[in-house]
Amino acid sequence: MKILLTNDDGIDAPGLAALAATLAAETAIELLVVAPDRQRSECSHSVTTATPLQLDPRGEGRWAVNGTPVDCVRLALTVLAPDIGGVLAGVNEGANVGADVYMSGTAAAAREAAIRGVPAAAISHYRRPDVPRSWEHVPRWLAGRLLPLLTTRHATARFWNVNLPAVDPASNPAVVETALDRHPMPLAYAPHGDGLAYRVDYHNRPRQPGSDVAECFAGKISLTQLVAGF
């Protein structure tokens, strides 16, 4: 099976490398990497239609695109490899739980694939300032857990949203299937120069018991199935 890897942190991001390393031992798959040429976080499901997109080769099976994560998925599915059997987006630097999924370019890449009938999953890593930001543990945490998410094609467009917790990298966090938290993000702004800067305590945001926010922030790997929109 041919699998597309993409992200919204850019083709040189360590999270994308960690995702590729997770799948390196799989012999039955072929990896294609198509990712933005720079940071495109919080771009949601935006696309590029008014200007041409450029495909920049970055080695065998790797392409950088001067566009969004959704642009990358569209180009991969139409130009580079129409036979793609699954899409994995990530690993994002920072959680994409609850309302985050509506802003996330990582989630949007998986959503675009699902809309087009391709099994997909978005993977993100919650971070806290008091926990080391390493990547070496990610392949161990995700080993054997990603390909099963790409084996089912749904009658209704759906994709998986996976969030890794901010815990000791040497630990072995449990995996739990969760619902998407329904709380809106808190809103707060503070004066900054001649404008207003967004200032919210992300780590203490509201959460519903058993939701992806609650379980991921409590130290578990949250696994949430989302409807792609229609």
Explain the layout of strands and helices:
Blueprint lengths: L1 E5 L7 H9 L7 E7 L18 E3 L4 E4 L3 H12 L5 E8 L11 H11 L4 E6 L12 H5 L15 E7 L10 E3 L11 E4 L2 E4 L13 H6 L3 E7 L3
Parallel strand pairs: 1-2, 1-5, 2-4, 5-6, 6-7, 8-11
Antiparallel strand pairs: 3-4, 7-11, 9-10
Helix pairs in contact: 2-3
Supply the key terms.
two-stranded antiparallel ribbon, Stationary-phase Survival Protein Sure Homolog, Chain: A, 9-stranded mixed beta sheet, globular, 11 strands, alpha/beta, 5 helices, 230 residues, single chain
Describe the protein's architecture and organization:
The structure is a single chain. The protein has 230 residues and is of the alpha/beta class. It has one domain (2-227): Stationary-phase Survival Protein Sure Homolog, Chain: A (3-Layer(aba) Sandwich), CATH 3.40.1210.10. 19% of the residues lie in helices and 25% in strands. The protein has five helices and eleven strands, in the order βαβββαβαβαββββαβ. It has helices at 14-22, 69-80, 105-115, 138-142, 212-217; strands at residues 2-6, 30-36, 55-57, 62-65, 86-93, 120-125, 158-164, 175-177, 189-192, 195-198, 221-227. It has a nine-stranded mixed beta sheet. The radius of gyration is 17 Å and the shape is globular.
